[in-house]
Amino acid sequence: MCILLSSCEHPDYPFVLLSNRDEYFARPTALADFYSENREILAPFDLARSEHGTWIGVNRHGRLCVLVNYREGSAENDALSLISRGSLPISFLNSSLNPREWEAHVREVSKEFKNVGGFSLLFGDLRLGAGGVIEPFNIISNRAQGSVEVFKPETRMIGLSNSLFTQPWPKVQKGKVLLDKLISDSLQNNWSQDELITRGFEVLSTTEIDTTKKPDSYLELFKEMPSSIFIPPIKTPHFGMEEELKKQGITSMGGYYGTRTQTIIVVDRSGNLKYIEKTLHSSDNLNEEPTIRTYAFKIPDYYKG
């Protein structure tokens, strides 16, 4: 039940992106780093599948990609994908093709994403165009025809979760309102970048799920997830079966599900990119301390105006 929210409305930070990854806490994942051989790609990596894909990443040239699954109906069905969806961001971040060329290429080689589970993908190159605004990005989904161009005048703020971009869940609508207020408040109060980021994590931590009332009702809570930006730790049907899952070689599931990673990406007018990853959970041990990783670099050839 992941979510991304992004705005190009701030005059000093023309690109702001907030992202929550909701997943089984026990799913093996490498924290964000420059892992590629040439250290060009900054991303966390899924270790539960051999493809070692990702859901969010950037490269040193300002190429950015974020993937969210499309909800097929249940948590178990959502996990089924013969070809890893996470391989798509890696493909884009490694490609030298422009975004439109890459889209055409990947559609062709994948036979229109045959055997790939449902997904939506935001992708593009961070470039500041005339008027000091970010050049358009694209969103594609294998559950919809064509692509949608965003970060145009009518879509300067966007949200995307596990439904189609044109059919947003309530959490997306709520998130866009909160992000709009965040940008407005930051301008009114002249917040620093650090304050903007701190308040961004507060937006990502907004929840409407009360697990104290029905702590074990996973299926009921699953129905509430489309309305909540943040998903607190929820016991899954696999709770208490962790050792048996390990014996079966199943590493993609576990006893708890919820928001495990929060990521914020901010780019200023000079092309300075800051990437902050907060990992709340990396196992079913709910007492572990969050891990925060911060990276910063300047995007070359950022200004196109």
From TrEMBL:
One of its GO terms (cellular component) is Golgi apparatus. It comes from Kuraishia capsulata CBS 1993. One of its GO terms (biological process) is protein secretion. This is Transport and Golgi organization protein 2. It comes from the Eukaryota. InterPro entries: TANGO2. Signal peptide: none annotated.
